[in-house]
Specification:
single chain; 285 residues; alpha+beta; 12-stranded mixed sheet; 26% helix; globular
Length: 285
C-alpha cells in the first residue's frame, strides 16, 4: 500500500529531525537566560552599542562558548530550546542516490513539538504536527487536495512511535546519557561562532528509552553518531549524521546522510490544524 510506505519513510525523516532537535544545544546559566536573543541577532546588538557608546557598560555581556560535560549537555539542550520556544529548520537527507529536502518551522507546545514543514525531492509532501495528530498532503497519498489526518495517540502503532519521537521529554530521557561526547573544536556556521560536538549513542539504549521495538536494533549500526554545532547561546546551528543501515541477509549496507540547519529562534510562528473541510481520514490510521 502506498500510505504505509510513505509512513515508514516519513517516520524515519521525523526521527532524524527530532534527534537533531534533542541533540541541539549545550549551555551554562548565563547563556540560557538570554537564549531567545541568540547569535542570529548579533547585528541588532552591535547597532545598539554603536549608537550609544556611553551606555556600553550597561549592556549585558555576550555569552561565550563553553564546553559542557556529557551530564550537562542534554539538560542544557532542553533549557535552551524551551527558552527559545520556536525555530526554523532545513534538513537534507540522502540515500540510495535520492535526496529529499525539508524546510519548516517548529515550536514547543503543551503536547510536545508542533511543526509545519514541506519537502521536495524524492518524497514531495506537506506536513503539520499539532497535539496528537499529524496531517499530511502528498500526491502519493491519493487524497487529492485534502490533508490526511493520522492519530498519534496510540503508543503501540507506527504513528504513535512518531509521536513519541517528537516529545521533547521523551527525547531527553533517550539522550541524557550519551555513550561519548567529544568537543571537536570551534567553528563558524553562517558567520556564527559555535562549538562542534560529536555525540555517540548506543542504539540499544536509545530504542529502550524511546520504547521502540528492540528488533529495530537490527536496522541500526552499532553506534549512532551525530555531529552538532552549538552557539554561545546554547542553541543548535547545524547537525550532520551519516549511518550505514545493515541489509537483510547480509547484503551491502545502505548509507544514509542527513544535514540540518536551524535559525530564527524565538520568532513568532503560526502552526494550525487545517480546516475540517480540507481533512480526510483513513480507517486504521
Amino acid at each position: 500500500m502506498r500510505v504505509p510506505s510513505l509512513a515508514r519513510r516519513l517516520g524515519s525523516a521525523t526521527l532524524v529531525l527530532t534527534m537533531g532537535v534533542g541533540l541541539a544545544a549545550c549551555s551554562d546559566d548565563s547563556g540560557s537566560t538570554d537564549s531567545s536573543s541568540s547569535a542570529t541577532d548579533e547585528s541588532s546588538d552591535d547597532s545598539t552599542t554603536s549608537d550609544d557608546g556611553a551606555d556600553e557598560s550597561e549592556e549585558p555581556a555576550e555569552a561565550s562558548l563553553a564546553e559542557l560535560s556529557a551530564d550537562d549537555f542534554y539538560p542544557a539542550v532542553m533549557a535552551a530550546m524551551r527558552e527559545a520556544e520556536s525555530f526554523a529548520f532545513e534538513t537534507t537527507s540522502g540515500s540510495a542516490g535520492q535526496t529529499q529536502t525539508m524546510t519548516g518551522e517548529a515550536r514547543f507546545g503543551d503536547d510536545g513539538v508542533e511543526m509545519k514543514a514541506s519537502s521536495t525531492g524524492a518524497q514531495a509532501m506537506e506536513m503539520i504536527l499539532v497535539g496528537k495528530a499529524m496531517y499530511m498532503k502528498s500526491p502519493d497519498l491519493g487524497t487529492g487536495d485534502k490533508w490526511l489526518k493520522i492519530d498519534l495517540s496510540d503508543p503501540n502503532s507506527l504513528f504513535g512511535m512518531i509521536g513519541k519521537a517528537t516529545d521533547p521529554e521523551v527525547m531527553f530521557k533517550a539522550m541524557e546519557a550519551p555513550k561519548k561526547l567529544e568537543l571537536v573544536g570551534t567553528e563558524d556556521v553562517d558567520g556564527v561562532e559555535t562549538n562542534h560536538y560529536r555525540i555517540t549513542l548506543d542504539p540499544t539504549q536509545y530504542l529502550k528509552a524511546m520504547e521502540f521495538p528492540a528488533a529495530m536494533a537490527d536496522m541500526l549500526p552499532d553506534e549512532l553518531v551525530t555531529e552538532m554545532w552549538v552557539d554561545a547561546d546554547d542553541l543548535p546551528r547545524k547537525f550532520t549524521q551519516t549511518m550505514e543501515i545493515p541489509a537483510a541477509g547480509g547484503g551491502k549496507p545502505t548509507t544514509t546522510t542527513t544535514e540540518g540547519t536551524y535559525s530564527d529562534f524565538g520568532t513568532d510562528v503560526e502552526i494550525e490544524e487545517p480546516p475540517t473541510s480540507e481533512v480526510t481520514e483513513q480507517p486504521g490510521m
